[in-house]
Amino acid sequence: MKNLLIFSFLIFSICIIAQDGTSQDYLSSEFHQGRREALRAKMPANSVAVFFANPVRNRANDVDYVYHQDPDFYYLTGYKEPHAVLVIFSEEQVSEDAKKYDEVLYVQEKNPQAEMWTGYRLGVEGAINELGFNRVFNGKDFLNNAINFSEFESVLHKPFTNDYRDSRDPADLASLVQSFKNKVNIKSIQQNNDPLGLEVKQEIAAKKDVNVDTESLYTYMGELRQIKSPEEMKLLKKAVRISAMGQIEVMKAMHPGMSETEVQGIHEYVFKKYGSEYEGYPSIVGAGNNGCVLHYIENNKTKLEQDLVLMDLGAEYHGYTADVTRTIPANGKYNAEQKAIYDLVYEAQEAGIAAAVVGNNSSDTHKAGLDIINKGLYELGIISSPDEQHRYFPHGTSHHIGLDVHDLNTRGSFQPNMVITVEPGIYIPEGSDCDEKWWGIAVRIEDDILITENGPVNLSSEAPRRAEEIEAMMKKSSIFDKLSLPELD
Ligand code: GLY
Ligand code: MN
Ligand code: MN
To answer: How far is 427 from 341, CA to CA, in rounded Å?
Structure first.
């Protein structure tokens, strides 16, 4: 009977979840709490780690860029707002009112007027109730508070960037960072301690030496973030699948009269259709010679014509980003030169994926593909010896993905539950020292590979990869075929 009651309650809960229409696949507060505990376990004795939220970045005048939380901050807290500080202590502390704690979160203050313009803020209560922190204060308490960093053997933080100002917030990140610098006696890059003219008490607690360590957190966070938990894998796999769906729809929709921007728009429409909030990095759509620019993001060629189109795009889903590239012929059929280069990159990628096994590292996936590319370029007469140093494959083959597209890691051997890319490429810019028939051909093929004890698993395999499979997919019809908008002058 008891089991039946529990079962009924579970079903009831699931129905409620389904009815309210919200996705339940966000990271849980238990996940973030577990990550803080894992970090604490790595910290040296008698140390304190201090993390700052990402700054708000201004686009122009009174328009800011869409805010994106610092990935380490998000990983450890789940907090998505700016002007915040996380302090983690290696050992338990005791407050003046005899409360025990080992972490403190400082958040941006509730402000009904500001929230009317820019949206809901969690505030102290929200951070306690929704993020599961026990000790939360407003940012201005960090400016005024009595954390005496000189009491700790080491104070860990990441190097600062330079872009922290938000004149609308009295406890903005500039003030929080400046206050911390004063407390740990770091020579300021901004000499004015009270840049906003506000009477914020800047307690200069530490005038004796503080042992500041700006390197260890990078290692600790890399060790944690490079291994994906099941909760993270769910989100990352979804981001990758969404990106593959974008590639498939574009394969069906593409025609020579399209522009690079339109191609980008179709990918990004599909991303949004499947609930991806953002792109994990600026979308790259380069036709012909434009594909030779590795991170080409202008995407402004107005007609694809007969070009190969290199499309490197990643959907970001609940913070986790994919990184998938396909290179396809705008007219639906690779010509002889395009196909020769494409097949060579494909073969190199196959070898790279096969090398994505436990114990290997990113040099192994790179070397596996590079040897094939060198031999192939020589056989095609593009280089004069397989050992020739050339610029046709100028980048590495593998990086980790996760909350960052180039995700934190320790540059060690591959371990189960890491997710890496395998992305060889050949780029032959116009004017290269080879037969002109190769000029303007750029091919990259990039897949997202899960490392397992049983070998590599290609998470983006839904998007066709073989030249023949791509050509077959390009013959299919697309939901965008019927899209017809009036011409504008
Ligand atoms: N999309 C960036 C990269 O492939 O690394
Ligand atoms: Mn990549
Ligand atoms: Mn990429």
So the answer is: 9
